[in-house]
# Entry
Amino acid sequence: MTTPQRRDPAKILPEITWDAIAPPYPDYLYFDGVERYPFRHRATTFDMVNAWWLIEASTLAYAEEDFVRLRFQKAGLTEVKFFTGKSTQCFVANNDDFAIIVFRGTEMRRHAVKPDFRNIIADVKTDADIMLTESGQRGKVHRGFKDALDEVWVKEGLLEYISNGIPNRTLWFTGHSLGAALATLAANRYGKAQGLYTFGSPRVGNVDFADDFHISAYRFVNNNDIVARVPPPILYKHVGDLRYIDSSGIVYDNSSCWERTTDSIRSEVSYIANSPGQKRHGFAHLIPDDIVDHVPTLYATHIWNNIP
# Structure
């Protein structure tokens, strides 16, 4: 277990309602605290500061390009390049020391620049295509995730850019939800990642894929997050060292199945007990616990509050 002992005040968890549950979050203060906690780009083991940077990047990835570029630049990542496919969007933000390759997760809102539902429909189709297909290395992976990564990997020049366009930098792959799955596949394909941090990731491949996965990877799961439970474990297996955030907001290192189950039950009981009070505030506050736990700003706040 990681026990927070910090000098900085803890951040308050954001209020989650149906109106504000889905990203992007234009009023969120991205990278608030980078002056005190710079990114540790040469780290070779798990680092909570780096985890916080990468969940901030993963949350930011849902926003429009100009908004994303400005926030990355304010955080000291002066170069930002975008790679866009039909159902995939990837941002590569870098400075002279390191690069963050971040994939956008499943979109649930219409784009301001694309005021229709095509982006949402494309993501839903990607998530739903759970047939296993050959990964190109060892093992099989989720076909929808693989096809989505293929849209930008060679066709849009992502592989060429991270191979030759940003030399002499450590490379960090990350994403939330669908973005976590794509980051996992991308890091595995590239094979030279300094680190992979994922947040609320679905399972990506089968047992052979997981057993052959050798990237330094850390997989955050916030309590009852529903997305971390799919696709079914009978066909799929998670990769990466688990970092479990319990119902009190404490991060555990590879907590046991029993610990996670009992914590999940306590959380569900608490949710049911509090439901009458939530109803008095209206339908906007009555959201299933396993959906609330997937919200990326909750991941970001909990991780910040666990920086030692």
Summary: The chain is about 35% helix and 15% strand. The chain has one domain: 18-305.
